[in-house]
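Form 7-S
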Amino acid sequence: MIRRISTKWVLAVLAAVVVPFVVFAWYVDVKLADRISNDIVRYYMQRFAADLADRIDDELAERRLDIELWASDPLVLWSVGDDPEDYRPLLELDFDRFVLRSPGFDLLLVVDSKGHCVGASSVGSGGEPLGEARAERLHRINYSERSWFQSSMSGSSTLVDHHVSPLLHPEKASLSDASQLEPGDYGVGIAEPIYSPEYPDRIIGVIYGVLNWTVVQEDLLDNYRKGDIFEGIGSEIYESSYSWLWKSDSNTIIGHPKTHLYGSRVAEEPIGLPQLVKAASAADQGMFPEYEFDGRLKQAAFKHCKGESEGGLGWVVGIGIDNTDIYATVNELNELLINATLLVLFVVVIWTIFIARRTTRPILQLQGHARRVAAGDLDARIQVSSSDELGQLARDFNQMIGEMAENRRRLVQVEKESAWREMARQVAHEIKNPLTPISLSVNLLKRARDENSPEFDEILARTIDLIQRQVENMRQISQNFYAFAGEQVLEPVPTDLRELIDEVLELNHAWAAELGVKTTVVGEGVIAQLDPTEFKRVMINVVSNALEAMPEGGDLQVRLSVANGSVRVEVRDTGTGIEEEIRKRLFEPYLTTRSHGTGLGLAICKRVVDEMGGTIRLQSMPDEEGGGTLVVLLLPTALEQ
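Output:
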């Protein structure tokens, strides 16, 4: 079907239409998608991850600056002096005003050098009062054991990482289930030492503030999502983008749109993404490897915030997006291309089939006549009914058939004459070789008789022996030519190959012993369907060739077996092997590598084996396997086997 011209036309037109669409679709799907993912999206994601990290660092730095300024405020300094109760009302009033005016801090408190609270705010960042019970509790606590107090008293500015403050939410501080907590229950502690105005090197107290976590989660992380992130590069397709925050260990979640994940370990179940932890731990900024979360493939970038040495907490900011959103536009374009391609293909196929059938009808007629000619009918002629290219093709076809008929007659005659000439040349060449020693020996015998030589009887005996051997040689030559001509009729019968092989080796036993060749046969009871007389000639030829290849002795092994419905005969010698160039032409008539012989032996072997329904092949064995030549014959099995 595919060989028809009409089919090829349809395929060619389809290719002309489909290939550009396919290439363009591939470019859009692979190249453009890869460029969007690798170049544009990755660039912006890393850029915005770095920008968000800077915003968080800036926010934390500003809040620290607020606490630093409070540490030098006169009311704070006076409150840790000799009469703190005199200034406590004014200090707490200023603290409350600050908390209400600058939402973010849930608590401000001042602790003297002994760890006693001398003043604290009484309202939260939302304006709600802390309550008298909580206020009293803040004043009863001894802060001297707090790590932030001890660190600040040693002169360090101290940050307390993401936590549920026991000062504000003592009832929630021990909860481990994040689903029972709100972002506002968490906070970040900021502590600054208070230095004496009279003695600048002396620390007289500590001011401590608790920054409400909603400043980070809602004001920074949540407002930095989706369209706001990718504004200007197609924000409508990035609906799944989101940002998160990890602790400095690159493994603990402290900020996420799903707040129940607070405190979860990224590398552990149910999240189970250790590759993200590894990537964030190995670099300060970059792209995470593509990962799957909640059943969706995602891309994400990360950036580390400033570390403790730079005044930060070393948090890791991440910005992620679903792959489906990245490739949304590409998928829409692909769908449009597919629909357009199918429509164009339908129209093109219908039109091409119509044109192809009208055009190929005369060609099909020409095809029918060509088949008649191929079958041997050189009298076939096409009726010319047009003057166009197809009509001219028909006329040329008729002329060609006429010339073919004449050329066939001449070729047959030439081949017959060439075959007879070649056969005559070969016969004359092969017979001339034994006639030369016969002629010389007869002349020597005649001269001995004419001269009454006393060695006449000895010369006569040698001459008779030589003539007999050369006559036998010529008889063998004639038999080879007769066998090559293929005049004999094969008579296949079930034959025990082991007995036949043993007989052939016995005929060559004296020769093998003289050369020092060890012969072995492996295999019993192998019956093949063949002409024993002709196959014996084949084996004699194969064994003779093997012995001639081992003038210095060696091993000759014959292995018999049955496999895959065929009898397998392997003849392996350890002789000189066969050159690759010669091996390719071994079965050609008149090809020989010896100085004697007709070069018909293997050609006759191949013809006989082929006529028996078998195959024969030769191959040289590599030196590491002992070298030599392997002859493999595959023969049909006998019916009873």
